[in-house]
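thoughts on these tokens:
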Amino acid sequence: MKVTIAIHRQLAGVSLAAVATMALAGLAQAQTAPAPQAQSIAPQDQADAAAPRAADIIVTGSRITTSGFNAPTPTTVIGEEQIANNAQPNIFNTIAQLPSLQGSTGAATGTFSTSSGQQGLSSFSLRGLQPIRTLTLLDGQRVVAANVTGVPDISMFPQLLVKRVDVVTGGASASYGSDAVGGVVNFITDTRFEGFKGNILGSITKYGDDETALVQAAYGKSFMDDRLHLVLSGEYDHEGGVGAGDFGTDLAGSRNWYRATTLMNTGITNNGLPQFNYRDYAQPYQYARYGLINNGPLQGIAFAPDGTPYNFNYGSNGRPTGTGAVTNCYRGNSFCEGGDLTGAPGSGASLKSKLERINGYGRIGFDFAPDNEAYVTVNVAQVKTNNQPSPGYGRASLTVQCANPYLPQSVRTACATAGITSFGFGSSNASFPDPQVYTDRKQYRFVGGLKGKFDLGGTDWNYDAYYEHGITISDIRVRDIVLQNRYVAATNAITLNGAIVCADPVARANGCQPINIFGNFAPSASALAYVAPHENGPFQHTKLTQDVASLNFSGNPFDLWAGPVSVAFGGEYRREFYRVNADPYGAGVSPLSPNSPAYPADPLLNAQLGSNWAAGNYKNGRGKYEVYEGYVEVDLPIFDSQSIGRANLNAAGRGTHYSTSGTVWTWKVGGTWDTPLSGLRLRAVTSRDVRAPNLSELFAAPTVTTLPNFNDPFRNQAVQVFQNVVGNTNLRPEVARNTELGVVLARPEWLPGLSLSFDYYNIKLSGVVSSLSADQIVRFCFEGNQAFCGGFQLDGAQGTNFVNVQPFNLASWKTSGFDIEASYQWQQPLGLPGSFTVRALGTHIQKFVVSAGIAGVDPVDQAGANNGATPDWKWLAVQTYDSGRLTLTVQERWFSDGTFGNQYVVCQTSCPVSTGNHPTIDRNKMKGAFYVDVGATFKLNDQLSIYGKVDNLFDKDPVASPQTNTGLDVNPALYDTLGRIYRAGVRFNF
């Protein structure tokens, strides 16, 4: 007899057999509930299902582990079968499709970045609150971060051993501690796996790129009469990524959706017309592919690949004015519409980072007594990524001397005629090598623990104790980025003793070699080594360590009139540490980084402050904090009768002491009511949750820049100051109030194949960590806010004035909405063998209001702004037919139309005055997207299956996400940027 389970936000501690069966049902919504209420079981199976099991399942919505506990916090459960049917090279891709996950990062995000260090970092974001506010666990345990922001990398988890993934869509800080503001994602592995299984997957896009090869294998065996358990797994994944296109509008492969769409800024706010205009084919008029004179009497002369001068083709019928502006174009952001786009760099960024990951995992457990185990786990992983953030080197503010010997004679003659000796110049430097960013993350994680049961006073208690030590080593290298002052020196050439050399004698003495920037003339090897030293490019070496000691107990100490009282309590110690060292060209040697390595002597470079690279100016730093915490959670049965149903009250409290910010308290109170109506449940929970500042916010590696004309409001004069961007050890934890109300109809007697749920949520987050500009910090102090007066000095001698730019607990966020889930399962549909299941999950964001906490800055509702991660509606629907041997799956992913930003005022004529808070715009609509994926699996026998899948079947292109620059105007956090993908593979299990 086949057993099927559809658990819709109501799973409790259920048996191993029940969860294994649940996985066959695929994607499910779950909330802790008694197993019998969560199942549709044939009569002959009921007795077996009700029998006690050797091990209870811990569902992540609560720390209570006893079967029958009903927790009020909604939890989505994704089983093995759903993970397998989705056929992804990284389990992250499957989980990130859930509608409640908004703004997660992966290999297709962050590819435009040079300096973030988060390229290819797979991390989850619940409710659009960013990955730093989602707690990700492995078997209920914390994982060492892969970045100083504190988020782990899912690519480093032992993915083939994952039995299920619990996604708690509500605040869980009282149960699990800091970071669980948006919720918790918990990966549950099969610690008792026996046998040998594997998975081989290959994939490629329609455009012939992102070739992927995945090989996974796992082995498990028991010894000593099933008391000793050994589990091993390993995997290798190579994803070729999608590289950059060329300058202009040409993307990688034959993709043709890029239009260089930009919000053109007229720079005029009060003429009755919109300040911003949505336009395709934005042409920057400050530079061209091989050089453009952009200021002075010769403005408009560009250079062909062979160096021949020609009149640049400005869009919009533009004409250069000789003063840097171009008529009929957009002065506010220096764009024309159309014309010569060959030098625009937007299409020259990778669409997806190349990624290679290797993962090894081992676990050995020994049952030293019945239902008691000692275990050790070791996880060693490495993830390498590569992306191109932009092509060439864009420089729009270069001054060229008319005497430059590389300049064509006709231009030198025109200089003489115009009576000038120099002119403004901009170039994309397309002859330069394209910058490349390489990241290499290595992780070593060790866990030793004890778990099991014991009897105390006639009551069974569960315990779980573990110690975890994790290390992440992260290296970032950037190749072919220029040192800006050296580039300027190399472009300023003269003729000396019949040879072309750098004009600056100091630069010549330090190895300067001249560069011809008037055409497609690649720099010589020696010139390139001087301008962009390949082996000494920007570099950052980071070490992060995490130590966790945790002890937890749970049990049913006594019974009340309505059933047993369940209790969980425990404590935890955690230490987080990081150290980062950077190259001296970027880090410099300053009082803020006294341990910097020796700086290469070069008078053209800033030895003290560093920041000499065009991008990738990493800094040195270190920091640590410690955490001590304890919690108690109680489940109290209120009533249990056939006439009024069953109700439970759940409450939890946690006290946490941070070495940096003191003590903070979190709590939750909620309850569930299983009504007398068949399958109908009501639930509610409210909680106080926190996110502690991470290592980056507390101890950010300092960045120092010079502000030469800073306005001192105290003396009403301009002064030179050093701007020190540093962390703030006085930051306090962010505090959230999270409320959820829900109703569930789960397999009622009158229609046992049906499950429905509706959950409303409301989150208010205060004290959000955010930063101010140097000008804002000084101005707020000047206006009387003493909180900002201790971080700057403006009355010192020349060279000692400074402003510390730090993060503060300033902003507040408010978001609300609801989740909907519906499913139905038919057995033997149309007389066919097997089952047919339809399931849909949706999230509607009613509001997502971000308040900067700054006087004069209005709050902005980001709900429905599709250039971010919070669309109004997001749905995932899955239809699955399973005959026992053949499984067919169709999946739809959809999100609604939106805007570029809800702060804009749309108008065509008679526009109000455009302001910073409410700028005017001629168009503010961004279409949503609908994607269809299809897949099939065929079991050749009980041990061997073959499968195939097509993602984005109709090759749906992304829509433009225009900004006010010519970057790659696309939002990979929402839209599919790769196109149709073909996948095929084989699975075996012996």
In short: The domain at 68-190+203-245+351-390+437-478+550-579+591-989 is CATH 2.40.170.20 (Maltoporin; Chain A). Residues 1-55, 66-70 have pLDDT under 50 and may be disordered. The chain has twelve helices and 50 strands. Residues 781 and 787 are 7 Å apart (CA to CA).
